[in-house]
């Protein structure tokens, strides 16, 4: 009964069909627990390769979910002495389906994220785990890295001014990180799972859109993301725009040149002002004056497009 209450709370609905779809998945994962308990460390580490091969051969991530979740649960038991409970398995399924799972502090949401993160990393396209600050990004990557390590999966953490890569070889036999390897940002994005803040991911995306060649881009794509504190990041933080500024490529003398034209123009006769849209439109008379000043036949010809832009800004 408690299980059903938890499902209803997470889904936000008591729809019987939704419950019927989720309960068998949890049962399948539980049925595989003994199978994965019997695996040696080497066999457990090879699970990711086996599941990747299955994915490449045509099996969907949904098909691989029971085995992937069972493997993560076993890895967590061995490295962190923590076992995913049924409600946490459920939370992982919900996140994999692209839904929001509401979990209170202390209910193990960091551990829950490892389930869909590992599963979706099997596609080879990378997974982004979005946290609210740099500290959590690094902490969670290193902490949960012990789980990913035992499954043969690499993990990285983005920081404001650098990035760290936690490769499976960077952990000792107990799953503890033995070193922090600082790495170029592009290599951090090449990891199977990348932790970082929404600002880090957002600004790197903007920078990628400013490069001229594909090889200069940091991110290899945006296939799957898990967002922690989703209400804060997608609602509250969304009010703060991400802006990248840089030195102007235009000659400042150009602005001075066109600014000299403006005082000679008269409102209504040469231009009209639209207060509502905060814009200015030239009249035919105004266009004629400017064309005479610039010594061009048509201000709005393609070859004069840049000049028209300067005039309107002036």
TrEMBL record:
Keywords assigned: Protein transport, Translocation, Transport
Any Pfam family hit: SecA_DEAD
GO cellular component: cell envelope Sec protein transport complex; cytosol; plasma membrane
Signal peptide segment: none
InterPro entries (UniProt xref): Helicase_ATP-bd (IPR014001), P-loop_NTPase (IPR027417), SecA (IPR000185), SecA_DEAD (IPR011115), SecA_motor_DEAD (IPR014018), SecA_preprotein_X-link_dom (IPR011130), SecA_X-link_sf (IPR036670)
GO BP annotations, alphabetical order: intracellular protein transport; protein import; protein targeting; protein transport by the Sec complex
Residue span, Helicase ATP-binding domain: 90-265
Keyword Hydrolase: no
One term of GO molecular function: ATP binding
Domain SecA family profile: 4-314
PANTHER family referenced in this protein's UniProt entry, alphabetically: CHLOROPLAST PROTEIN-TRANSPORTING ATPASE, SECA INNER MEMBRANE COMPONENT OF SEC PROTEIN SECRETION SYSTEM
Name assigned to this protein: Uncharacterized protein
Lineage: unclassified sequences, metagenomes, ecological metagenomes
